[in-house]
Design a protein that fits this description.
Shape: globular
Low-confidence stretches: 1-45
Helix content: 25-40%
Distance between the termini: 34 Å
Strand content: 25-35%
Number of helices: 15
Structural class: alpha+beta
Length: 529
């Protein structure tokens, strides 16, 4: 799941095609179903054994028929009751389907891992609708898969009902990993899943899709389109996503006749599980996209900080690469870069090499060959890698007065500090805000350049500020996108303020006006060099 930029015209076409959605990195073109003859030949060449099947899970709400959850299992050569091996669970992104070709799993089976790949509810050959990783539905699905794995004689067991197990996957395939880990803790009272490798996934799904209640328009439309051909989503969710994209406000049911997405998504992610007091106490390898505009870097940083125990963080690694769910950043202007320098720095290879080395340590007790445990490693726009032990916001930089028009106008860059300066993590603004107009909105992000005229967003993201009613000198806090950047001497760090954003197209102020910030201070996880 790496960077896959597309243009506006292509996005419009994508709204009626899962094939086009694959260009967004949201789906896979791999066929679902039983392994074809070519797969069997590849399996023999790789020394793996491939089998397919479906298990029965809980019915859809209001129905009585069990739902089929379909899977493909890859057993490595030599795995047996006498020589059991660890199992790696894999699943797909939104609109995708499971691995069925032995070549897809070969890097893992060649390393001595079994692989269990499955179609999530509503996708591929599995039945039902996608409830976006709901504990009561998808939670039951992943618990059933763990129980199935516990009955496989060639899979290593830590105790009865507790297979030695890791998990991999990106985007929606990262969401199931947190759900599986948390649900096993809830159901058994212990850690059953032994290691996770979630890529480009979320902490708070509502905050990802609509920060401050302002909808990421293009992603709302793309996600709904990505499930239309298979009727994957419940129809009320289709309606809600279209409502949000049309109105610019996340539907919460407060307007008669509209849907309530707040209630629908209340349990759908680590935020809810953490709110119940659960924490993950096993090693986690994070891979998040710095230029991801759907699940931005701050979503994974929050998971690192609150979803893991302190002990687990010491045995975990956080990496961020230039990629993820990416759309072109035109207004405001951003960067175009696709690289994974931190995986190369830590493992000497790509993210899969890093994953295999991480799982060898976590699941096999192998040597600790990787550097960087207990640290965060963030890719920079120039394909460098900044490593840090903390993303605490300890650097306070005065900005002064920041003004932007609302509803229409051009982005304006305000110099914050000359280089050299490093930012690695999140930032926020404090200011006294004055707004003119009802439901005033503006978008903010960090930028880099030699002057305000050539400053571009560090890694494409902005976040909205929203004032429902006019303000006069009111104290506000405005969150900014997390970034990794080393600003060299001769360039400066800027705060970019914009009345519009192409990620939030059509989501600017509801009425024309001005957003004025005075006594503005940037609080950031950075350091002056």
């Amino acid at each position: 799941m790496r960077r896959t930029p597309i243009g506006r015209a292509v996005l419009a076409a994508a709204l009626s095609s899962t094939v086009a959605l694959s260009m967004l990195g949201l789906t896979s073109l791999a066929p679902a179903g039983s392994a074809p003859a070519a797969t069997a030949a590849a399996a023999r060449a790789a020394g793996a054994t491939v089998s397919d099947g479906c298990l029965q899970s809980v019915p859809e709400p209001g129905e009585t028929a069990p739902v089929d959850i379909c899977w493909t299992l890859f057993a490595p050569a030599g795995a047996s009751r006498k020589r059991p091996v660890p199992l790696v669970v894999q699943s797909h992104g939104w609109g995708g389907s499971r691995w069925t070709d032995a070549a897809q799993a070969q890097r893992f089976t060649d390393r001595g891992y079994g692989v269990l790949s499955f179609d999530q509810r509503g996708f591929g050959e599995s039945g039902g609708h996608a409830h976006v990783e709901n504990p009561d539905l998808e939670g039951a699905d992943v618990r059933a898969l763990v129980a199935m794995a516990a009955d496989l004689p060639w899979v290593q067991q830590d105790r009865k009902g507790d297979p030695r197990m890791g998990a991999i996957g990106g985007s929606y395939g990262g969401g199931y990993q947190f759900l599986m880990a948390f649900e096993e803790i809830r159901a058994t009272g212990r850690q059953v899943v032994d290691a996770l490798v979630p890529e480009i996934t979320w902490h708070d799904l509502e905050e990802s899709l609509a920060p401050e209640g302002v909808v990421r328009t293009e992603w709302a439309l793309a996600l709904s389109a990505g499930s239309l051909p298979s009727d994957a989503l419940p129809w009320n969710v289709y309606k809600a996503l279209v409502e949000g994209a049309a109105t610019g406000t996340w539907p919460d049911g407060s307007v008669p006749g509209t849907e309530d997405m707040v209630t629908f998504m209340e349990k759908n992610g680590p935020k809810w599980q953490v709110g119940q007091g659960a924490r993950i106490d096993v090693p986690v390898l994070f891979g998040q996209g710095t230029t991801d505009t759907l699940f931005p870097l701050e979503q994974a940083l929050t998971n690192w900080q609150v979803a893991l125990t302190k002990k687990a963080r010491k045995r975990s690694i956080f990496t961020a690469y230039n990629g993820g769910h990416v759309l072109p950043a035109v207004l405001p202007a951003g960067v175009t870069v696709d690289s994974d320098p931190c995986a190369e720095k830590l493992s000497g290879g790509d993210f899969t090499d890093l994953t295999l080395a991480f799982l060898d340590r976590a699941l096999k007790g192998g040597r600790r060959t990787l550097r960087g445990y207990g640290r965060l490693h963030l890719a920079t726009p120039d394909s460098g890698c900044v490593s840090t032990r903390t993303v605490a916001r300890r650097l306070d930089l005065p900005v002064g007065t920041v003004a932007t028009t609302a509803a229409a106008g051009v982005p304006i860059a305000y110099e914050v500090a000359p280089g050299p300066v490093t930012v690695a993590g999140g930032s926020h603004l404090t200011a006294l805000a004055t707004t003119i107009g009802v439901d005033a909105r503006a978008f903010y992000g960090l930028a880099i350049g030699t002057s305000p005229a050539d400053a571009v967003l560090v890694q494409n993201n902005v976040l909205p500020f929203r004032a429902a009613l006019p303000l006069v000198g009111e104290e506000v806090r405005i969150e900014l996108p997390a970034v990794g950047v080393e600003v060299p001497e001769g360039q400066s760090l800027f705060l970019l303020a914009s009345p519009i954003s192409d990620t939030f197209v059509g989501m600017g102020s509801r009425t024309p006006g001005v957003v004025l910030l005075e006594d503005t201070v940037l609080h950031t996880a950075g350091r002056l060099r």
